């Protein structure tokens, strides 16, 4: 019985790491599609998002089995309950990348090479998620805190993108729809940063038993 318990915990760990890696992959792929203007990457983003959804269901099943059948000890109970919470944020990251992919078809006719702040923002959001997953793998509460603090950078970049685009709309009203699309895409990246923060907070809780 104990062997089965340990096996399920290890399986949960593996699945969580896999789901985090899928989220990193979909952020990178969607960003590549956005700045290359290559629509083929958008379909790949949707395929990965579907994998993320399947992974969420698998993890939910493992967690419920552990909670209902195995009666985990206190530290393991924290780990399992935190897993149920953080996979919701990972799933939302997948959804938001799919939303960005859907919007890319409206931006492909524009050159985005000058939108360095948006590109930096997407990279910062991806780094937050990568570090949150690493904090989970290594059970590193300090790295989890670093992720939480990094959200300020993503928020500041979003404000920079937004202010710039508002000025551009005033100068080139004919491109107003494009600029609004870019603001919405930037907002999705800002929300991805928020979800990465939530993941880090649940990682911190799973390690310490304390909520930030």
From TrEMBL:
This is Phosphate-specific transport system accessory protein PhoU. One of its GO terms (biological process) is negative regulation of phosphate metabolic process. Keywords: Cytoplasm, Phosphate transport, Transport. The keyword Plastid does not apply. The keyword Transport applies. One of its GO terms (cellular component) is cytoplasm. Belongs to the PhoU family. InterPro entries: PhoU (IPR028366), PhoU-like_sf (IPR038078), PhoU_dom (IPR026022). Transmembrane segments: none annotated. Homodimer. It comes from the Bacteria. Plays a role in the regulation of phosphate uptake. Residues 16-103, 118-203 form the PhoU domain. It is found in: Cytoplasm. Pfam families: PhoU.
């Amino acid at each position: 019985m104990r062997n089965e318990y340990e096996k399920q915990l290890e399986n949960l760990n593996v699945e969580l790491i896999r789901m985090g890696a899928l989220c990193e992959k979909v952020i990178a792929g969607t960003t590549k599609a956005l700045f290359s203007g290559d629509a083929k990457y958008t379909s790949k983003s949707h395929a990965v998002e579907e994998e993320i959804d399947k992974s969420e269901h698998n993890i939910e099943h493992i967690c419920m089995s552990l909670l209902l059948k195995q009666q985990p000890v206190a530290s393991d109970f924290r780990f399992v309950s935190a897993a149920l919470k953080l996979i919701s944020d990972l799933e939302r990251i997948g959804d938001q990348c799919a939303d960005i992919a859907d919007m890319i078809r409206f931006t492909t006719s524009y050159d985005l090479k000058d939108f360095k702040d948006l590109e930096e923002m997407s990279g910062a959001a991806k780094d937050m998620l990568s570090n949150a997953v690493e904090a989970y793998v290594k059970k590193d509460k300090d790295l989890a805190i670093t992720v939480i603090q990094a959200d300020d950078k993503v928020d500041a970049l979003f404000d920079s993108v937004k202010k710039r685009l508002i000025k551009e709309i005033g100068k080139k009203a004919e491109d107003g729809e494009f600029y609004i699309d870019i603001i919405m895409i930037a907002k999705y990246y800002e929300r991805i940063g928020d979800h990465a923060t939530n993941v880090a907070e649940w990682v911190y809780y799973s390690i310490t038993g304390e909520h930030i």
